[in-house]
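INPUT
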Amino acid sequence: METRAEITFLGTGTSIGVPVIGCDCAVCTSDDPKNKRLRSSIHVRAGGVEFVVDTGPDFRQQCLREGIRRLDAVLFTHAHSDHIMGFDDLRRFTVEVDDEIAIHATEECLDRLRAAFHYVFDGHNRYHGYLKARPHAVCGPFALGGLEVVPLPVEHGKVETVGFLFTQGGERLFAYIPDAKVLLPESRRLLEGIELLVLDGLQPQPHRTHLSTGEAVALAAELGAQQTWLTHFSCRVDYRALEPTLPPTVRLAWDGLKLRC
Amino acid sequence: METRAEITFLGTGTSIGVPVIGCDCAVCTSDDPKNKRLRSSIHVRAGGVEFVVDTGPDFRQQCLREGIRRLDAVLFTHAHSDHIMGFDDLRRFTVEVDDEIAIHATEECLDRLRAAFHYVFDGHNRYHGYLKARPHAVCGPFALGGLEVVPLPVEHGKVETVGFLFTQGGERLFAYIPDAKVLLPESRRLLEGIELLVLDGLQPQPHRTHLSTGEAVALAAELGAQQTWLTHFSCRVDYRALEPTLPPTVRLAWDGLKLRC
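OUTPUT
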């Protein structure tokens, strides 16, 4: 079958990454590369374009590791620091795309980007090599190259947060929802029976603003997702201990994992 | 001689680090570890306290590399993204110091931190494990453990920027000035004949807002600094090519370098 999308997991960690600074737990001190997690983000090549979802503080390191040299756009799920604080490192991609890079985020998220990176948006930043962005407010489905991108509203604490469903020619390719506690009804409807789902599965223990691993497994089953990859893990997820306990349609992602669909 | 201060260079790179994303130059593709540069920052153990100067986006990675497990304070030179965007990763240190960490920065820099990381400062952030900061406006010399810290105003483009002179019992230990084009007269006076100086030396080529290597060497000579270490390098600095051309009192720093004084 023709590859329509290539997805690279740039990071699969929660806000503080794994290992956690100063933590001596078995996962943080593990040698297993699948227990090393940068902040969650994916790179996607599909529909004739390349883009990333979220630019956390590890973004430069992730681009160097994966040899990313071109980006046509950036999508943001929400404005928490672990998803936006690498924004300035996008400057290396602005020369290639008409000296501006397309930024797709909710109006609330754009406001946070404007507050944190005012010099990108205030119109005074004309030096060559500095980051220049063309912001697009996400308030419904939008085109990205040959793709249609459908925002999926979710509940994730107090901050406005979305996942994204990517479709091409009316067919669903995959959905990416790295931070969620509850999917809203309209999001659930769009995901019923989806072939490939990437979903928050923070840790086995319950959490106030994230799906636990068990909650994510149950949700994937309710949706009838054919293959689900969990992401956005804390150091309570030991890859080799947890992976064998999951049903065959659910797996744990890791940094550097590539999926094709 | 007794060690009064231990300085670790967490990073010696300019705003985009080295290697630069998408750059194929000889330095960016070099295997020499002294040509690998995270964003500039130092960790200091002196006067009974531990602190860092600046928290760029590489801050978590730098803490893990150097095994930093305690911080009593953070000093900021200025609010450019390469010096502040790792701020949220300080959350791992707030449990140790009365649930707040002391932040020393100019009022302008504190305003930028408040804009970018509003949740740290707005009083609503009471969850355990989230970053809590106790901001102190730098407007003159201040005490830090057994040290006296003297801000050194410099010119560095449009943003208010300082370096820092660290003294103990009236004796100068060292000064750290990672971003500067011009030292103001009061800063120069405080540095005359200093034993240990760390100074911006971006690259051999002139730059609008940074000292070139040659300008930094000349300035160190004018000041009569006994030993100067340059930092904050672009990929135009090839360690092995440039280091032998410098006078004996000036050297190039590298990521992981430790100095004692």
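end of record. Helices of chain B lie at 59-66, 81-84, 107-116, 118-121, 185-191, 213-223, 239-242.
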